[in-house]
Amino acid sequence: MFFDTYDTPVFRPPSEANSFILRVTRGCAHNKCTYCNMYRDVQFMTCTDEEISRQIALAAHYGKNQVKRVFLADGDALVLSTEKLLKILKVLFETFPKLQRVSSYAAPKDILRKSVEELQQLEKAGLKLLYYGMETGDDAVLKAVNKGVSGPEAVEAGKRVVAAGMKLSIMIILGLAGVEGSDRHARETAKAINEIKPNMLSAITLMLYRGSELLDQYERGEFAPLNPQGIILELHKIISLVELPPESHCLFRSNHVSNYVQLAATLPKEKDRLLRQIAQAADELGKWKDWDVYNNSRY
Questions:
Q1: Is 4 a domain residue?
Q2: DSSP, residue by residue, 276-294
Q3: How are beta strands 45-46 and 25-26 bridged, if at all?
Q4: Helix (H) or strand (E) holding 172
Q5: How many structural domains is the chain composed of?
Q6: 191 Cβ contact list (under 8 Å, min separation 6)
Q7: pLDDT tens, residue by residue, 264-279
Q8: Does the predicted model carry a pTM greater than 0.85?
């Protein structure tokens, strides 16, 4: 019997708004990060071949020639075996004649389970872009939020994707280390970015979600979140320390709903302009007198 494929929340990056969202897993295989409640109530499982085929058939029925991009959901589709992913990719490109690329979220442990050679196979089969939630390059913060990998492992995961020829979009979380760890979080994250050299870099802002351990820590007085100005100053420090090769073309975005300021730039070419805009935003946010820690907004 089929389950209702979309009976639980489906998340995707902002840039995948017009993509066909193909659910190949449900939930998150790790599902232990203290800051996240996205899939906390969803039992992880992999979709069967029949369930995946049904979704593809429905999409083909309603828009076979309109599908140009496909995003593999849920939180870490790369947890699937390379063999199964290759099979899915083959069917997708056979079904949709105008398909240009397939993308997916990728958790660090799932990346590290695959060799560079396996990732190269997937890239050649059409999996061109991975969205990697590194969150931080700080070993201590990764341990505190129960990410499941160390700082060196987080860097190795990103470097492995780049070595395979895939495009890599790294996501970092501003404010993840709170007030006490902000400086170290910024410095170690910038260092990791410099080592990995991603194609895209996205910054989102920490939100304390009901049902997350980090919110519980805050309410017990064990975690001191950064205020809005502190968040932007942390971003300023990260960007100031990011030193990519002159020939790099890294797209930076802060277009997530959690962010106080929408920013866009190409690094390193527009780094100086971006830093000026961030500094201006910090000045404006410094005028905020009241702040709702639960919603990242002013009263």
A1: no
A2: HHHHHHHHHHTT----BTT
A3: antiparallel
A4: strand 167-174
A5: 1
A6: 137, 241
A7: 999 999 999 999 999 9
A8: yes
